[in-house]
Amino acid sequence: MDPFRLIIDGKKVPTKQCFEVLNPATEKVAGLAPLATREQLEDAIRAAKVAQKSWAKETERKRQTACRRIAERIEAHAEELAALLTAEQGKPMGGLGSRWEIGAAIAWTQYTASLSMPPKVLQDNNEGRVELFRKPIGVVGSILPWNFPVMIAIWHIIPAVLSGNTVVAKPSPYTPLTTLRLVELMNEVLPRGVVNCVTGDDDLGPVMTSHPDIGKIVFTGSSGTGKKIYVNAAETMKRMTLELGGNDAGIVLPDVDPKQIAEGLFWGAFINTGQTCAALKRLYVHDDVYEDVCEELVKFARKMPMGEGTDETAMLGPVQNLRQFEIVSDLVADARKKGRVLLGGDPPARTGKKQGYFFPLTIIADLDNGDRLVDEEQFGPALPIIRFHDIDEVIEKANDNPNGLGGSVWSRNITTARQVASRMECGSVWINKHGMIQPNAPFGGVKQSGVGVEFGQEGLEEYTNIQVVFS
């Protein structure tokens, strides 16, 4: 098995050491990733710094064209990337799995390439002319998670490149292979040094977040890691976009048709086997429809096949890594003592045999705020359901969490749903759906769910500094 290589200054760079990347469905080796040294990270940052000076001088139209060509390269290699993604991440090829993620990455790249940041004239009169310009920050450090390693890499890299920055990306050590291949394809289009990719252990992250030659850090991951990045970046006053953990609440009002909303609730909670920052992670259901919603949701969930990603009938895959499997197991074990298990709840014993990190779809009713599965982000296929009677009380409970990424309201009355949505403390609220992000709508969290936004014009502008010229 030939090891993958780093991508530095447009070249594939070997390393003295490699590390194994496991397929979470089989626990077998999916590939060998290069273990970058600190010196190689420095080489990547240096290459990005040199390349940025000339890349920033290119016209916006040329950068837009380059991004469109990246989308074409991804599309030409879509099946290859999807297969590699399934091998290391575990998600199924079909459904809302690897092919879907690659398709979304293409669509996001194409949309972002259409955006523009022309100068704005703030004033032009006999007192003078005032213009606002958006200028690139410089080198962007991208630190990536393991749940959507291709799509999130696109979210980080494409707006950075379009706005005249260069990038050093560091994928999660759990899922580095597809990102390495993605950046290799980007380098078939871009000038050397514009996008670099280094892989290794978590020791590289702090070097990036404190490095004086990196002007911005964009990170998607846990709130705990985000706080460490905040501290490390303070010395150099870096710009930051941090999309951190979520514990999204869904509120089901009493006028719903339980059967009609079951599918939306299910995918809101269990897309990517629940390993999604903006997944539905706490479900508050009005007493009038509580038992019916529980019944219909369980009935729908029982139909969903879980299995190895190469099985085209599988709709859900394993938890991505053993550490996360243990976190979910611990939270579910605690919830079983307090709630009513409607589905699953009993993970297979870890006997030492390689059987994959499969955790059964789990739905536990009759929990409440104060229970760990409600208060803590599970990031896996386990959903707590909480009964409520009073709308003011449930809004207070939904907001009683340090996170504030997303939320949802489920009702036939859109006016009422919007009123409830306006009172929720989160960056995005969906009505009668959950987690449906799109490239033209800004996405980001409040409270401890992050800093800044991604996507759309607002997300693109986060990769720039403002310069105002008075004349």
From TrEMBL:
Signal peptide: none
Alphabetical keyword list: Oxidoreductase
Family matches, as CDD domains: ALDH_AldA-AAD23400 (cd07106)
Keyword presence, Membrane: no
GO molecular function: oxidoreductase activity, acting on the aldehyde or oxo group of donors, NAD or NADP as acceptor
Residue numbers annotated as active site: 243
The keyword Translocase is annotated on this UniProt entry: no
Domain Aldehyde dehydrogenase intervals: 17-469
A Pfam family matched in the record: Aldedh
Family in the record: Belongs to the aldehyde dehydrogenase family.
PANTHER family reported for this sequence: ALDEHYDE DEHYDROGENASE-RELATED (PTHR11699)
Protein known as: Acyl-CoA reductase
Taxonomic source organism: Ruegeria marina
